[in-house]
UniProtKB/TrEMBL annotation:
Protein name listed in UniProt: Ferritin
Entry similarity comment: Belongs to the ferritin family.
Signal peptide region: 1-18
Keyword Oxidoreductase recorded: yes
Length: 212
């Protein structure tokens, strides 16, 4: 019975391989009335995908730096690797939104740029890295706000849904994130003034344990 089944499969495969199966996609006649995103809004969103990926790569570099055996700051590494994952997810969310609105009908692959090399790969201490992280988050926030400005008042079409999505899903998280990093920076500076390098070591342990 097993031999019979195997023979049948081989015959089917051979039969399919001899068929003239088309390998090209046919152009479909699908109405485009539902695709109503303004061209400027689409372009700004596409650019933001790259910005989120750049931020992710920068955080990845931070996490890798503080993971080095000669430095060994697992708390900082954990913080920055988590931030890298969040920024990557932001890029995925933006792509998903563009797909939902029909804003990725062409050049989808061009969203992923090749020049995503981190601007910086080393830091003198944890405070410096946290301050750079805060600047990075502030820059991302400004870019998201610029999308909202363009899609709200800079065009003839006020994209209420897109603006509501960016304000509720992105800006809310950005502001909470900025406040969190600012607070961590303040705490670390106080600990280092009080305990010197030991302060950073203690801060790292608290980061690792989720106490800060």
């Amino acid at each position: 019975m097993k031999h019979l089944t195997l023979t049948t499969v081989i015959v089917l495969v051979a039969t399919v391989s001899t068929l003239d199966v088309p390998c090209t996609n046919q152009e479909l006649d699908i109405p485009t009335d539902w695709i109503d995103m303004n061209r400027l809004c689409v372009q700004k969103m596409r650019t933001q995908v790259t910005e989120e990926l750049k931020a992710s790569m920068q955080y990845m570099a931070m996490g890798a730096f503080f993971s080095k055996d000669t430095l060994n700051r697992p708390g900082f590494a954990q913080l920055f690797f988590k931030a890298a994952s969040e920024e990557r997810q932001h890029a995925i969310n933006l792509i998903s939104y563009l797909l939902m609105r029909g804003g990725l009908t062409v050049d989808a692959s061009s969203l992923i740029k090749r020049n995503l090399v981190p601007a910086k790969t080393s830091w003198p201490n944890g405070i410096s890295a946290l301050k750079d992280a805060l600047k990075l988050e502030a820059m991302v926030t400004r870019r998201i706000r610029s999308i909202i400005e363009v899609c709200e008042s800079g065009t003839t079409f006020n994209d209420y849904h897109l603006n509501d999505y960016l304000i509720g899903e992105f800006l809310e998280e950005q502001y909470h994130g900025q406040r969190d990093i600012a607070g961590k920076t303040s705490s670390l500076e106080k600990m280092m003034k009080q305990h010197g390098d030991l302060g950073e070591w203690l801060f790292d342990k608290k980061l690792l344990n989720g106490e800060i």
